[in-house]
Structures are given as C-alpha cells and as structure tokens.
Write a structure and sequence with these properties.
This protein is α/β, with parallel strands linked by helices. The chain has helices spanning 11-22, 69-88, 124-134, 137-141, 160-169, 188-200, 218-228, 239-246, and strands at 2-6, 26-31, 39-40, 54-57, 96-102, 145-151, 153-155, 182-183, 185-187, 206-210, 216-217. The protein has a seven-stranded parallel beta sheet with strand order 3-2-1-4-5-6-10, sandwiched between helices. A two-stranded parallel sheet has the order 7-9. The chain has a two-stranded antiparallel ribbon with strand order 8-11.
Length: 248
Amino acid sequence: MKIGILGATGYVGSRLTTLARESGHEPVPFSRSEKPGHRRVAPSGQLDFSGLDAVVNLAGEPILGLWTREKRQRILQSRVDGTKRIAAHLANGPRVWINASAVGFYGDTGDRLVDESSPAGGGFLADVCREWEAATGSAEEAGVRVVRLRIGFVTGPGGAMRLVRPVFQAGLGGPLGSGRQWMSCIHVDDVAGLVLWSIANSRICGAVNAVLPEPARNIDFTRSLARAVNRPAIFPAPAFVLRTLLGD
C-alpha cells in the first residue's frame, strides 16, 4: 500500500515509516519544506492525497514542556486545526484514515477501568482529545473509514523515554507524587504495528486503545525502569512541583 504519513519525523512516525517500508509498503511522508521523497504541505495548508491508499496523522505540538497558556493553546490548535485540514482534503483521497488521539481522552478515572465505549473525562488533555477526535467527523460522514488511535505512554529507545532514562541512569529517578496513578503503556513498535494492522483490517473503525493489555501503577513502572538501568529510584517528584510545571 501507499501510505501518507503526517508527523513522519516524530518518534512514532519515524518508526512507522521504517516498519511500513520493511513490510513492503511505500510510506509517503509529508513535510512543510521541500524534501526528496516527501510531499509538501503548502503554506496555504493544501494537501495532496492523490494515489494514496491510506493516510496516517501523527502530527501535533509535543506535550512535553512547561504548560503555559500559550503552550496549551498550541497543543490544542495543532491537533484540532491539523485534523480538520486533513478531513477537508480527503474527498478525493484515500478511504482509510488513522488519526492519532490519546488515552488522555478518559481523564483521571482513578481505579475504574475504561474501554473504547467509555465517555470522555474532564481536564485539559481530555478536552483536547475530545475536540481532536470530533474533528474527524466530517470525513467519517463522507464514508471514510476513520480509526482514532488512543495512544498510551510510548516506551522504547526514544520519545519521552529519551528524557526519562538518563535521569534514572543518574540515580535520580523516582515515582511521580504518590506513584499510585495508573499508566497505560505501549512500545513504539507496537504502535507502529497497530497502525498498519488497522489500515489492513477493514472491520476496524472508531476508537482503538493503543495500550498494553495490563496497566501499571507509576511506582511499579518506576521500579522496573530502575532495575533495568541497575540504579535506585528513591527520589519522588513532589506533587506540588508537578502541578507547578503542568498546571491543574
């Protein structure tokens, strides 16, 4: 298949591009600049999806960093506006669209299990995910098969783990706050594989949770990571510091 990928230079996008090529597909990255083998996103936002069998959207402002008001606005607008732009250009393009979302859709559910049928929660990330997913609606109404991939915390050699691992290797790692919060994780290879699987299986549509079968508490994740790098993990990040950095 010929698969268009927006956000191809990101952590998941890069792995997806490689895996697609290794699997015999032809990945077609999109870029805002002129690059060999890439299709250009025009300054006007125009997108050329001609000849593609599927399109995958992984683009968006990174959520890592200080959540200032401006940062939050970029996180929201980059996802919602970009998704709306794709929906507007799919009329004569591929009939399969895999659009990223996140398990942040569910908000903080405590110890309550949730699945794809559960409603959106509250909080900033839940609000972002709700608007993000809603932006695919017009394409779905036009008959495009849309898969909204609710991605968990992505592990592997890069991404957020590229920042976390050195902290643990220095012996400075520890749980976040109480450490009792649940983490739904997934390896980057599994995210990329799930994208290709979702494209190939015509019965898959709507929300799909891209996570491992079992979640882990943050304190257990912390201990496992500390053991993996053979270091102690005794410095918890105080809750008030996290609130200062991330907001409510």
